[in-house]
Amino acid sequence: MKHIKPVVLLVSVFFFIVLMIPTLLVVSFGDKTDGKLTEKKTSESQKVEMKQTNLGPQIEVAVYRMSTKKVATLPLEEYVVGVVASEMPADFEVEALKAQSLAARTYIVQKMLSGNIGKKLPGGAHVSDTVTHQVYKSADELKVQWQGDYNWKMEKVRKAVQETAGQILTFENQPISAQFFSTSNGYTENSEEYWSNPFPYLQSVESPWDKEAPSFTDQKVVSVKEFEQQLGIKIPTDGSLGKVVARTTGKRIASIEIGGKTLTGKEVREKLDLRSADFNWAKKGNQIVITTKGSGHGVGMSQYGANGMAVEGKSYKQIVEYYYKGVSIALPDQYVSKLTAKQ
């Protein structure tokens, strides 16, 4: 057997390596896919974000700016950022901000689809920027409000909106009326006990987290004269201040008798501009001291309750499913054509 010369051996090895490199590369990458054509698994939030990239520019919200008396038209998701930043404290937990994002987005989508929104607003606006609809502030307004905290607060709000992009709340495949409010008295309210319409997903639930909220209790002092004028009553000569006739499921006052007149808790709240329909009062000299529990109408999601749940580790999905009974989280694909047709 002849010995192979070193030079010949080196050349042979070189050509062998050159020929084998493509094969080795194919085998190497083939091992990662098990020889099959596969797709990268995408999380639900990533799917939502990708779909919203296509949907976002098609849906625009026309907001009537009360201060300038002009209409601002902006993409849906940008509108939601301005609402979340205005309606919920930015120092809340991210999961609570995500829950608020769903409520805010669902609110405007449902209103736009209903066709009965913005009819009294000029310039074809869908909504105003006030509590009549949803409070909305632009980036410039938020910079003034937040000042040195603007960057981190806006980054946090945008994160919450982006991670839920396109998601809305539905009940029986229809967007819900996503009501929300600041602070409960320990319970949310049945919709039919505050408004006339019953909604199966807007039913009373316990909300114990609100007791830690700074606005859980409040006091308001009015003169006896103002009290009588606002309620349209005359305090009896015996000094009694009426009696509670009935309470709602959510422990607020359903009806009260005072000065020979029966009023609903909602009427009293609105006439006296109280924070809540869960109130009590006492006469001290020529003044009436009124104490309330909670802040807001009490229907739907409590914002402080949502934050309390988030602090305990609950996800935004768990939060919205707790406050809105029987709902599903969906993408508004089937509603896009209807919304764009209305614009």
From TrEMBL:
<dbReference type="Pfam" id="PF08486">
    <property type="entry name" value="SpoIID"/>
</dbReference>
<dbReference type="InterPro" id="IPR013693">
    <property type="entry name" value="SpoIID/LytB_N"/>
</dbReference>
<protein>
    <submittedName>
        <fullName>Stage II sporulation protein D</fullName>
    </submittedName>
</protein>
<keyword id="KW-1133">Transmembrane helix</keyword>
<feature type="domain" description="Sporulation stage II protein D amidase enhancer LytB N-terminal">
    <location>
        <begin position="66"/>
        <end position="171"/>
    </location>
</feature>
<feature type="transmembrane region" description="Helical">
    <location>
        <begin position="7"/>
        <end position="30"/>
    </location>
</feature>
<dbReference type="InterPro" id="IPR014225">
    <property type="entry name" value="Spore_II_D_firmicutes"/>
</dbReference>
<dbReference type="InterPro" id="IPR051922">
    <property type="entry name" value="Bact_Sporulation_Assoc"/>
</dbReference>
<keyword id="KW-0812">Transmembrane</keyword>
<dbReference type="InterPro" id="IPR013486">
    <property type="entry name" value="SpoIID/LytB"/>
</dbReference>
<keyword id="KW-0472">Membrane</keyword>
